[in-house]
UniProtKB/TrEMBL annotation:
Consists of a catalytic RNA component (M1 or rnpB) and a protein subunit. It is an enzyme of class 3 (hydrolase). InterPro entries: Ribosomal_Su5_D2-typ_SF (IPR020568), Ribsml_uS5_D2-typ_fold_subgr (IPR014721), RNase_P (IPR000100), RNase_P_CS (IPR020539). This is Ribonuclease P protein component. It comes from the Bacteria. Keywords: Endonuclease, Hydrolase, Nuclease, RNA-binding, tRNA processing. Signal peptide: none annotated. PROSITE patterns: RIBONUCLEASE_P. GO terms for cellular component: ribonuclease P complex. Pfam families: Ribonuclease_P (PF00825). Its EC number is 3.1.26.5.
Amino acid sequence: MRKNLTKAEILRKKPEISIVFASKVVYRTQGLHLRIVENDLGWSRVLFTTPRMFRGAVARNRARRHVREAYRLIKGQLRGHYDMVFVLYPGLYEFSDRFSQVESLLHRAEAIPQS
C-alpha cells in the first residue's frame, strides 16, 4: 500500500462530508475528535478540519500537518474502509502527542488492531 495520501483518499464533496458529520459515531480525546462511518468504495477517505476557534494560521496548519502525517503512517493498519473526519482543537501538542491521539482514536473506533 502506498504511504502517501492520494486525491481519491481525501474526502472532498460536501454531501459526503455531511454524511460523516450527520453520523452519531464520534470518538473524542483531548485536542482531537474523530467522526467515522464505513463506506463501500474499497479504500478509506479522510478529511482534516479545525473549528473556527482555532486561531492563527501557522499553528492551525502545523496541527493539520501533524495529524495528516500521523494518519499517513497508520493508514496501512486500517481494517475495513471508512470515511473519517478528524476535527483538530488548539493546544500545545507536538507530533508525538498528535500521533498517539490519532492512534488512540482509531483503536477505540476498532479501525486498527490493538498493538
